[in-house]
Amino acid sequence: MGNTFHGGGRTLSLSNGGTAVFVDVLVLAVSDLADSAWEYRFATLLALQDQGVMGRGAVGFDLEDIDWGRSPGEQAAAKGFVLRVLDLALRRHRWDELGYEPPFAEEYLRQYREMVEAFDPADAGLRNGGNPPFPGPEEAAMASCVRHRLLCVPEYGEACVFCNSSH
Predict the structure, then answer these.
(1) Which of 8, 26, 106, 131 has its Cα between 20 and 30 A from that of 66?
(2) Count of the separate structural domains present in the chain
(3) CA distance 151 to 154
(4) Does the residue 161 lie in any domain?
(5) Domain for residue 166, yes or no?
(6) What's the pLDDT score for residue 79?
């Protein structure tokens, strides 16, 4: 069983272990970059990919389901932020805090970066009857795990992806 991340007609399929690594390195980066309401919402989306809370094989999302904004400027800013998160993660930002060596993480990040780069946010249409998986402003992860300095999902308290795993 694994997890999939879709976007622009492409798919990144990861094992449960691969997903855990992918989420770990992205949360390290997004926690240090998020500064606006939309960016905190995106951080929440990433934190919700925590299989320790959501269940193994039960995570993943489509780029098409993200609320990228209404105007071309908002969409460009949102896409630029996601690319900055990926670029920071690709520079192995805070990977020394993982407690393990993620041998395939760079390849997962490169593949996902190519998906995001090729994706046009203007093509995104909210599915699921207008009930998208993208967190709303009131759900934004603005709380931080004191121990790991990572953003957390408010409804799950102060536990981050590292607290919820065996790291």
Answers:
(1) 106
(2) 1
(3) 9
(4) no
(5) no
(6) 96
Question: Does pTM surpass 0.85?
Answer: no
Distance CA(134)–CA(39), nearest Å, equals 12
Q: Dihedral sign for Cα 146, 148, 153, 158, please.
A: negative
Cα–Cα distance measured from residue 5 to residue 19, given in angstroms and rounded to the nearest whole number = 10
Let me know: does 150 contact 160? Beta carbons within 8 Å: yes
Q: How confident is the model at residue 65 (pLDDT cuts 50, 70, 90)?
A: confident
108 domain-assigned: yes
Residue percentage of the chain with pLDDT more than 90: 34
* Residues of the domain holding 75: 2-156
Amino acid at the residue 40: Y
Give the helix ranges, DSSP H, for the chain. Answer: 16-33, 37-47, 51-54, 72-90, 105-118
Residues above pLDDT 70, as percent of the chain: 68
Q: What confidence tier does 120 reach under pLDDT thresholds 50, 70, 90?
A: very high
Centre a 10 Å sphere on the Cβ of residue 44 and count the other Cβ atoms it contains. 24
* Residue at 165 is within a domain: no
> Helix, strand or coil for residue 4?
strand
* Distance in angstroms (rounded) separating the CA atoms of residues 80 and 116: 9
